[in-house]
Design goal:
- The chain is built from 21 helices and 5 strands.
- The chain is an alpha/beta fold and 392 residues long.
- The chain folds into 2 domains: 236 residues, no CATH class; 142 residues, no CATH class.
- It has a 5-stranded mixed sheet, with helices on both faces.
- A hairpin with a 2-residue loop joins strand 1 and strand 2.
- 40% of the residues are buried.
């Protein structure tokens, strides 16, 4: 029985695992998946999907029921923008190659269903993975990463000189994979950990569980996960630990309250040792830059006058009372004004293929405005504090 070169065979007890290492935008991977299932007639087919990703690949629109008000209220604007940017980057590459991202995973499930073979979704929930990754990286890294995802693929997707089918297939080679993962680990270890290493463990554990009592298992996973899964197959793995959302860093939780408290103490001290005129000037020295920064960035993001006004009013209060966040206030006001429809949500996969689409779709515009409002308030406050320090 000759199997495609992308298949890695693993044995554990009486169970044989045929792991197909794929690229998520590769027609050859689609063909390899079909060939492997037809060749080995497995007892179960495992795929690198969770329920959310499976629904996203198989339903007409994964964003139809998106509640943008809830996203903004829970402070997940950057998180959702990052999710959309990553998905759009994959779709642009897939479009340039004529393959829908994840086509090989869908092929695996459909082929198995036609042959009445059970299918197991073995990946960790995408929302947990993204949130664990999100917690690992700082604000600046989040912003630069999103910008590269949103803007970096346009030329490649349109001029044909960027990512090619040959490039994709070459990246599946063991030597190329090893070099790529090594470089990724050096460049962005905070991303590689939750995005690759943790999922290697999770996938291996779920695949092993799915294979209990079975003789033959086919698993379809991204080629980058195969080396790690091979190493983890016989290792004890605590999946519950891998599913936990780590809290914000202790220093951030402390700083979030300590900085406003210290600032308030300084203002109280100034009020006690100076006259009213001096105190008023002290207050204006940080309030004005904070309001202007928030209002300016909100306006530049294309917000309504209501949102600009909300940014200018909320930003000084948010600097001294952490339970109020400028981005959330502005996002709610803008969402109330734009009122995204179901159709707007359904268009997200198409609109997020270009920067123009990101800008025009009401959902992503609300998210961008909320992020810009918070960023402008932060920069304005920094300017105000610097100005205040120079006067003291």
């Amino acid at each position: 029985m000759e199997l495609p070169s992308s298949v890695t065979t693993m044995k554990r007890g009486d169970t044989t695992f045929y792991v197909v290492g794929t690229a998520h935008v590769s027609q050859k991977s689609v063909d390899d998946v079909k060939a492997t299932i037809d060749a080995v007639h497995p007892d179960v087919v495992c795929v690198e999907l969770c329920k959310a990703r499976y629904d996203a690949l198989t339903k007409d629109s994964a964003f139809r029921d998106l509640d943008v008000f809830k996203v903004v209220r829970e402070g997940k604007t950057l998180y959702l923008l990052g999710h959309l940017a990553l998905a759009s980057y994959q779709r642009r590459i897939g479009a340039s190659l004529g393959v829908q991202p994840g086509a090989e995973l869908v092929t695996a499930t459909k082929t198995a269903e036609k042959r009445n073979i059970p299918v197991e979704l073995i990946d960790r929930d995408i929302n947990i993975t993204l949130r664990r990754t999100w917690r690992n990286i700082g604000l600046w890294r989040r912003l630069t990463l999103m910008w590269s995802l949103v803007s970096g693929g346009d030329d490649e997707a349109t001029d044909g000189n960027g990512v090619t089918a040959e490039t994709v297939e070459n990246l599946k080679e063991p030597k190329a994979l090893s070099e790529m993962l090594t470089e990724l680990g050096k460049a962005v270890p905070e991303i590689k950990g939750p995005l690759v290493d943790e999922r290697d463990k999770y996938l291996a554990s779920k695949m092993r569980e799915a294979g209990e009592g079975k003789k033959t298992v086919v698993a379809v996973v991204g080629a980058a996960h195969v080396p790690g899964m091979t190493l983890q197959l016989d290792q004890p793995i605590d999946r519950a630990e891998l599913e936990k959302i780590p809290p914000a860093a202790l220093w951030w939780r402390i700083a979030r309250w300590l900085v406003p408290l210290v600032f308030l103490c300084i203002l109280v001290y100034v009020a006690k040792v100076s006259d009213f005129d001096t105190f008023a000037k002290t207050m204006l020295a940080w309030i004005i830059p904070t309001s202007i920064g928030a209002g300016l960035f909100t306006a530049l993001a294309g917000a309504s006058p209501f949102s600009v006004g909300a940014a200018m009013l909320a930003s000084p209060v948010a600097r001294v009372y952490p339970l109020i966040r400028t981005g959330i206030v502005v996002g709610i006001v803008e969402a109330w004004r734009r009122k995204p429809s179901v159709a707007d949500c359904e268009r997200l996969p198409d609109d997020t293929q270009t920067m123009k689409g990101f800008w025009k779709n009401p959902v992503t515009r609300i998210l961008i405005i909320a992020v810009c409002a918070g960023l402008g308030a932060l920069l304005g406050f920094a300017v105000g504090v610097g100005w205040l320090a120079s006067r003291m």
